Amino acid sequence: MVDMTTSDVTTIPTRPGVAATSRGQREVHRFEALLVGGPTLHFRYAGLAFLTDPTFDEPGDYEGAIALHKLTGPAVRPDELGPIDVVLLSHDQHFDNLDRAGRELLATVDTVLSTPDAAGRIEGVTGLEAWQAVSIGEAEITAVPALHGPEGAEVQSGVVTGFVLRAPGEPVVYVSGDNASVELVREIAGRVGPIDVAILFTGAANPGRFGDVDVTLNARTALEAAVALGDALIVPIHAEGWAHFSETLERLELVFGYGGEAERLRVPEKGRRLVVDRSAGLEDVAGRA
User: Fold this and answer.
1) What domains lie within the chain, and their CATH numbers?
2) Alpha carbon of 46 to those of 10, 70, 233, 254, 282: distances in Å?
3) Cα angle, residue 213 at apex, residues 34 and 264 outer, rounded to 5°
4) Which run of H or of E encompasses 154?
5) What CA–CA distance (Å, rounded) separates 278 from 281?
6) pLDDT digits (tens, 9 = 90+) for 88-132
7) What share of residues in the chain are helix, strand, coil (percent, to 5)?
8) Which pTM was predicted?
9) CB 90 within 8 A of CB 55
10) CA gap 135, 138 in Å, rounded
11) 207-219: per-residue pLDDT in tens?
């Protein structure tokens, strides 16, 4: 079981005007990840197995105030991943971030970090306020703000969170969650300092709740977010597999190319492990999990 106590939880103070440390002064090791599909990414970090927003249902329809339609199933089954130490759950209120099979998986995981609202709805979930941090082993995980739509979207979309991970000898990793706000990305980059790998939820998700306004990053705003993140490598996920995504990864790649940032994109392929070693300039796509 992962050791996590309430004494590990601290509030990270605001650090305005943090000076960017040159990458040459920081030891940066490789990052490996396996895209299960949608927002579900499996990776090892500081000796722990992490999973973001578990979605393992087969294709199907989800009824509700706004119907959602899943088009493709997971590339990997939960039992192929092995034990999961920590789930980073951006929010629990939408099936494309936590489906029925994903909800069942939560009961098998020692540590699930999410919003306080999710903690109130799901037994065993630890809720973190924005800028609250918890240490699990050698990994420090900080909840960071996210906005699932336009200003004031929380009233309809609910509260969402992102995460920043730090550990000795590991890259600094940012997981955006379902965030559509470039301003929040700028705030996060300013407060936490240099980020090595940014896992951005993209695809211009738009189920119609706010008219033509997207509820996750589109290609244009993802490019703006990438610029705000300095020279972080960008791993785009949550851009396929559901009918409410309004932009393709191909469009994202085009826009990054036109914006002069194509070399920073690391687009994972479902079911194949992506290996990125920034310090050695190595990028490789390995086989299945």
Assistant:
1) 27-267 (3.60.15.10)
2) 20, 33, 19, 34, 20
3) 35
4) helix 154-157
5) 5
6) 999 898 788 899 999 999 999 999 999 999 999 999 999 999 999
7) 20, 30, 50
8) 0.85
9) no
10) 7
11) 656 566 677 899 9
